[in-house]
Write a structure and sequence with these properties.
- The protein is of the alpha/beta class and 292 residues long.
- It has one domain (7-286): TIM Barrel (Alpha-Beta Barrel), CATH 3.20.20.70.
- Helix content is 32%, strand content 15%.
- It has 11 helices and 9 strands.
- An 8-stranded parallel beta barrel has the order 1-2-3-4-5-6-7-8, surrounded by 7 helices.
- It is globular and about 50 Å long.
C-alpha cells in the first residue's frame, strides 16, 4: 500500500442473501473491478444485539436472515485466493476471531465495535493485521482502541476514517480528519466510504493519500442493504478504482479535521457495542429504548 495507489476492499456486508453462489459472484466481481480484497461479516444476531432489544424488535430479529453461514468460510477464502484477492471478514463476537483465523488475511473491526477492546485484543493476539473503522468516535476513543491493539502485541494496524451515515452526506465526510489520524495516531490511514460519491473517494486518495479504501458493493440492487443508499454497483466503482474518474467538486467534503461524530452519525453513537459484553446498544440505551 502506498500513496496514490490505495488498497481497495470490497465490502459485501449483508448483501449475499446467505447464498454461496452469490457470495462467489461477489468475489468474482471484486476481482473484475480491480479491488485487492473482498470482505464479508461473521455475526450471530443473538451475539450482536442485547436480548432486551431482540425481545422488543421484530426488525432486529429478522436480521438473522443476514447471517453468513460459517460453513461458507473455507470456500470463500479459497475462491478469493485463487483469483488473487485477499480475503477478510469482520468478527462480531469473540469466538469469531478464532473461527476466522485459518481463512482470513487480515481482520477488520467495525466502527460500532471500536469501544469493545476485548474484541480488538483477540484480533491482536493472532498476529494478523487489523483494519479498524472509526465512525462516530472522538480522537480519544480511537487512541484507546489503538493502544489496546498494540498493548496486546499487535503490530500492523490501519485506521479508517469513517462516517457512519447510510449514506453519509458529503458535507459530513470531513476528509481532513484523515490527516489528523495520521499525524496523531498512526501512519497507515484510509477511508471507509458510505458516501457513494466518486469525488469523495478520489479526494481521499489524491488529496489525503489514503492507504486503504473500503467500499460497500452490491451486484444488482437486490442486496439487503442496497436501498439504504451506501452500496456501489460494480460498474459505478470500477472507474474510481482504475483512476479514470475525474473529480468535480470536493470542497464540501473537506471539513475541519477534528475527529468527532458528524451530525449524520451522532444518534448512532448510543448503538455502539457496550465494552462490558460486546452487545449493541450501550447499556444505558438498553434501559430506555423502545421501538419507534
Amino acid at each position: 500500500m502506498h500513496k496514490n495507489k490505495p488498497y481497495f476492499i470490497a465490502e459485501v456486508s449483508s448483501n449475499h442473501h446467505g447464498d454461496i453462489e452469490r457470495c462467489i459472484d461477489f468475489i468474482t466481481a471484486s476481482t473484475d473491478i480491480g479491488a485487492q480484497a473482498v470482505k464479508f461479516q461473521l455475526f450471530k444476531i443473538d451475539q450482536l444485539f442485547a436480548p432486551e432489544i431482540l425481545r422488543q424488535s421484530p426488525e432486529h430479529r429478522q436480521r438473522v436472515k443476514w447471517e453468513l453461514p460459517k460453513s461458507f468460510l473455507p470456500e470463500l477464502s479459497s475462491a478469493s485466493h485463487k483469483l488473487g484477492l485477499d480475503f477478510s471478514c469482520t468478527p462480531f463476537y469473540l469466538d469469531a476471531v478464532g473461527e476466522l483465523d485459518p481463512y482470513v488475511d487480515f481482520y477488520k473491526i467495525a466502527s460500532y465495535e471500536l469501544l469493545w477492546h476485548d474484541l480488538i485484543i483477540e484480533c491482536a493476539k493472532t498476529g494478523k493485521p487489523l483494519i479498524l473503522s472509526t465512525g462516530m468516535a472522538v480522537l480519544d476513543e480511537v487512541k484507546a482502541a489503538r493502544d489496546a491493539f498494540f498493548d496486546a502485541g499487535g503490530t500492523d494496524l490501519t485506521l479508517l476514517h469513517c462516517v457512519s451515515g447510510y449514506p453519509a452526506p458529503i458535507k459530513d465526510c470531513n476528509l481532513s480528519a484523515i490527516n489528523t489520524l495520521r499525524q496523531q495516531l498512526t501512519s497507515k490511514i484510509g477511508w471507509s466510504d458510505h458516501s457513494k460519491n466518486p469525488d469523495v473517494i478520489t479526494a481521499a486518495i489524491k488529496n489525503y493519500h489514503a492507504d486503504v479504501i473500503e467500499f460497500h458493493i452490491d451486484l444488482d440492487k437486490n442486496g439487503a442493504e442496497y436501498q439504504a443508499g451506501h452500496c456501489w454497483l460494480p460498474e459505478e466503482i470500477a472507474p474510481v478504482i482504475s483512476g479514470q474518474y475525474t473529480p468535480h467538486n470536493v470542497f464540501d467534503a473537506v471539513g475541519d479535521g477534528i475527529k468527532k461524530p458528524s451530525p449524520a452519525e451522532i444518534d448512532d453513537r448510543q448503538w455502539r457495542a457496550d465494552p462490558s459484553d460486546g452487545l449493541r446498544p450501550l447499556k444505558q440505551t438498553r434501559q430506555t429504548w423502545v421501538p419507534a
